[in-house]
């Protein structure tokens, strides 16, 4: 299904709900708010469906306050739900069980399950935000002018690009990623302002968590794996509940000779782990072997009903199989 046809379905729809993956990151939120703001500009009746609240560091984005966790399922009259940046049906941050309307699935995860009626999956895209940029153009949204609304939508898309590429340093970056970033800058996006909002306003408790986590990093598998555990007790003491740990994991991955970094976070009902790879190890294989998914160099999984110790054994076993 081409984006042109997807844009037709969008134009013909009357009430559109937009949602994304659970524990939304900068790409999920940036793509969603870029599309929401764009559709509103076009006079469409569009709204957010989410069980979760927008993470603090992303709340600067326009209409971010609408990601407040109040609308968890499609509201009456919705004829289209667009799911962004979400590979697995189980990870959708909305209750769609009772919904029988159309679903559009737009994503860039290799492991995408194609759960939509219409699926647009481009795993060459560095971020779903790249696809939203192209989709908005397909919807005849004009980017090449300096208007406040264009800049605001640009900020959303730029946020998706920056956060899913480690600020344009990962190998998923292509010429197209930079071209889109360049076009966004020419319509008023201030790159350093977005970077400041994203990365230079951490709460003190978060910096303390970084310090604690990194001082407890363990090197396993002949120093090829950096493993970090974060207990619920630590999170409670620091009063951090929905904390993003992507900065912690990238510092762990920067250790010399490390090929894979893991952050395992204890939750009420088990352990959630993020995995990152520096070069060749495919962490999406590792995540999939334990019921998760993701990209070659960034993946995630959840082991329900497990302690941190039990999860570690499983994760390390699975990494060893992939490394050897
Ligand atoms: Mn993404």
Structural notes for this entry:
There is one protein chain. With 324 residues, the chain is an alpha/beta fold. The protein folds into 2 domains: 3-199, Alpha-Beta Complex (inorganic pyrophosphatase (n-terminal core)); 204-323, Roll (Diaminopimelate Epimerase, Chain A, domain 1), CATH 3.10.310.30. It contains 11 helices and 11 strands. Strands 6-7-8-9-11-10 form a 6-stranded mixed β-sheet, with helices on both faces. The chain has a 5-stranded parallel β-sheet with strand order 2-1-3-4-5. Strand 10 and strand 11 (298-304) form a beta hairpin. Helix 4 packs across helix 6. It holds the Pfam family DHH. It is an enzyme of class 3 (hydrolase). This is Bifunctional oligoribonuclease and PAP phosphatase NrnA. GO terms for molecular function: hydrolase activity; nucleic acid binding.
What labels would you give this structure?
324 residues; single chain; alpha/beta; inorganic pyrophosphatase (n-terminal core); 11 helices; 18% strand; globular; Diaminopimelate Epimerase, Chain A, domain 1; binds manganese (II) ion; six-stranded mixed beta sheet
